[in-house]
Write a structure and sequence with these properties.
The chain has 15 helices and 34 strands. It is an alpha+beta fold. The protein has three domains: 1-163 and 293-327, Immunoglobulins (Immunoglobulin-like, Sandwich); 172-292 and 328-586, Alpha-Beta Barrel (TIM Barrel), CATH 3.20.20.80; 591-703, Immunoglobulin-like. Strand 4 (46-52) and strand 5 form a beta hairpin. Helix 9 (417-428) crosses helix 10 and helix 13 (509-527) runs parallel beside helix 14 (569-583). The relative contact order is 0.08.
């Protein structure tokens, strides 16, 4: 392999004028006359910019940054243009026992790179230590890693946004659709083959038409910031499908581009906005893809390990509350600045509408653990850019006291796994599940109703990327993750699923009918609950992962959405439910329901009913076999202005067929999961027959248009 020139070696670029430049903005910035570079490192002795040929294969110059302001190293290189390939080498102490892992033999990714190109080629040369050596991670490997590293690009992020405007959908009307950019379109017959698996394919006309028909208002994309395939996956012939190994917080993932251009992501956002659909990103600021002390040196570790990561003891080992080997230290002001700069970049330059924060508890940790007033939370909340977009926390990590559901402050919404589990348990017929379901139907008020938080704070879901799909939830009693190569040890064991007597696919008409009704019951419960509903991409067309509930490495037909049914009966049913939710605002209220009254003469905002019309008592809620109850839902008594919104009576029945005493007045049966084609049937008596294992929605006849 050709040896790269050292600093000062003659070459085509080695004698370009390098001036002091400026310490802002961080990263590589083209100004028309050249490129300004600015890199943070508190403990470095020297920072080099390494320039490469257009194909990224050969290093053609190595230029030390000449100035340092505080902990920012910077310089301006005359004559460089957009498209320049570059990387970093950072000199400093090699003292792993005290947290310093500098190694200038390793080419590093600029944390602020707007574009990263080329694959990561796994090699022992990527490690800062000699693999297999007696000193383990304390040793020093002097091999050049440039041949194996992706390259950064001085990128053009300009884009003609035209009249693009954020949809600014009210949280009460939000319906989230969680999707993997690649998996969503890889098998879709109407998407142009060259665009499948890309940003442009996801925002193609067939996909936007599909999402619009469903009534989706926001797509939540699994990680799209640059990531790579883990070495252990490649040895098994697998790939990182979900994307939770971020290495570039400003760069769109290249595998989702058909033409290798940043504008492809921007064009996707503009198309979604034109259709009234918001774009939310699942972001991973809790860790990086560099792993623990035995992981590769790709970026942060080699730039300033002691600043970027939370370390233990003297600094040799990494605090690992993420399960990935390391945890970013957002207590450090420059690491927090990087996260904030990244978030603002995706809003201001890429026009996204919000974020879902993976393992968000890790972002809030300080010396005493979870801190509700942590630097991260307080900084985001006061930021004039970020405080106006949608913010969703995954409210846990794997560290001590890491489960913090309900503890994130306004304006954060939170993924509610308690909702998922309790809805599944109720429909499976578990004992004492009715009382828990009732709490979930009300937006988990006992969890979220504090400090002025809204009833939309709970992001409700029955399925998500992590776990069974809806089809598998009603087809498998146990996980089947053998394809992951971990002897089926990975993935959740407590799935609260049901196979109706047959594990996996069945040709039995009765079993298939039961499964389809169970799916309708689960989805109906989701969209009839207070809170913010989230659907999993593909559930509407019966997508299965063959019982794999941890398809993180299945970038293949197992993980991809199967589009055998591009227009399914369940999809039509979901669209009806979304439309019903919008037609009846009492299903998506801003304030919580507590069975209170606006005045002594007014009816309460919520009434629970047994099938015989009587209000249930403690004995009913504690009865392990009580499986059928109704909710009469009106406007919240806490609402500032009462508008007389139409009330609904919703009956949930996980038991046998029963006669239900309707509330006083004339009623219409609007929806029935036992008869999915049922619409607006008048009820001709004071009682209504409700089928076994069903959800039925009634509306007052005199208040419907």
């Amino acid at each position: 392999m050709t040896q790269p020139p050292s600093a000062g070696t003659p070459g085509r670029l080695a004698h370009r004028a390098v001036t002091g430049g400026r310490a802002w903005p961080l990263g590589a910035t083209f100004d028309g006359a050249g490129v300004n570079f600015a890199v943070f490192s508190a403990h470095a002795r020297q920072v080099d910019i390494c320039l490469f040929t257009d194909d990224g294969r050969r290093e053609i110059a190595r230029l030390p940054l000449p100035e340092r302001d505080g902990d920012i190293w910077h310089g301006h290189v005359e004559g460089l243009t957009l498209g320049t390939r570059y990387g970093l080498r950072v000199h400093g102490p090699h003292d792993p026992e005290n947290g310093h892992r500098f190694n200038p033999s390793k080419l590093l990714i600029d944390p602020y790179a707007r574009q990263i190109v080329g694959p990561l080629k796994w090699s022992d040369a990527l490690m800062g230590y000699r693999v297999g050596g007696a000193a383990a991670d304390l040793g020093l490997d002097s091999r050049d890693s440039a041949f194996a590293m992706p390259k950064c690009v001085v990128a053009d992020t300009s884009f003609d946004w035209g009249d693009d405007r954020p949809p600014l959908r009210d949280s009460r009307e939000t319906v989230i659709y969680e999707a993997n950019v690649r998996g969503l379109t890889m098998t879709h017959p109407a998407v142009e083959p060259t665009l499948r698996g890309t940003f442009l394919g996801m925002s193609s006309e067939p996909m936007i038409d599909h999402l619009t028909r469903l009534g989706v208002t926001a797509v939540e994309l699994l990680p799209v910031q640059s990531f790579f395939n883990d070495r252990f996956l490649e040895t098994r012939g697998l790939r990182n499908y979900w994307g939770y190994q971020t290495i570039g917080f400003f760069s769109p993932e290249p595998r989702y581009m058909s033409r290798g251009a940043i504008w492809e992501f921007q064009a996707m956002v503009r198309r979604f906005h034109a259709a009234g659909i918001e774009v939310l990103l699942d972001v991973v600021y809790n860790h990086t893809g560099e792993g623990d002390e035995l992981g590769p040196t790709l970026s942060f570790r080699g730039i300033d390990n002691r600043s970027y990561y939370r370390l233990t003891g003297s600094g040799r080992y990494y605090e690992n509350v993420t399960g990935t080997g390391n945890t970013l230290d957002l207590d450090h002001p420059m690491v927090l600045r990087m996260v904030m700069d990244s978030l603002r970049y995706w809003v201001e330059v890429m026009h996204v509408d919000g974020f879902r924060f993976d393992l968000a508890s890790a972002l809030t940790r300080g010396p005493e653990g979870f801190e509700p007033q942590s630097a991260f939370l307080e900084t985001v909340r006061q930021d004039p850019v970020l405080s106006r977009v949608k913010l969703i926390a995954e409210p846990w990590d794997i560290g001590p006291d890491g489960y913090r559901l309900g503890r994130f402050p306004y304006p954060f919404l939170e993924w509610n796994d308690r909702y998922r589990d309790d809805v599944r348990r109720y429909w499976r017929g578990d004992p004492r599940a009715s009382a828990e379901l009732a709490k979930r139907l009300l937006g988990s008020a006992e969890v979220f109703d504090r400090d002025g938080r809204s009833a939309v704070s709970s992001v409700n879901f029955v399925t998500c990327h992590d776990g069974f799909t809806l089809a598998d939830l009603v087809s498998y009693a146990a996980k089947h993750n053998e394809a992951n190569g971990e002897d089926n040890r990975d993935g959740h064991d407590a799935n609260h699923s049901d196979n109706f007597g047959t594990e996996g696919p069945s040709t039995d008409p009765a079993i298939r009918a039961h499964r389809e009704k169970r799916k309708r019951n689960l989805i109906a419960t989701l969209l009839l609950s207070q809170g913010t509903p989230m659907l999993l991409a593909g559930d509407e067309v019966g997508n299965s992962q063959a019982g794999n509930n941890n398809a993180y490495a299945q970038d293949n037909e197992t993980g991809w959405v199967g589009w055998e049914e591009t227009a399914s009966e369940l999809g039509t049913f979901i669209a009806r439910l979304v439309a019903l939710r919008r037609a009846y605002p009492v299903l998506a209220q801003r304030r919580f329901l507590h069975g209170r009254r606006t005045s002594p003469e007014a009816p309460s905002d919520l009434e629970w009913r047994r099938a015989d019309g009587v209000a249930p008592g403690a004995a009913d809620w504690n009865d392990p076999e009580w499986r059928a109850f109704g909710a009469l839902i009106r406007e919240s008594a806490e609402k500032a202005v009462q508008r007389g919104e139409r009330e609904l009576f919703v009956f949930f029945n996980a038991g046998g067929a029963t006669a239900v005493q309707l509330p006083e007045g004339a009623w219409l049966r609007l929806l029935d999961t036992d008869r999915p084609d049922c619409t607006s049937e008048p009820c001709h008596s004071a009682t209504a027959q409700v089928a076994e294992q069903s959800v039925t929605v009634f509306a007052r006849a005199e208040t419907t248009g």
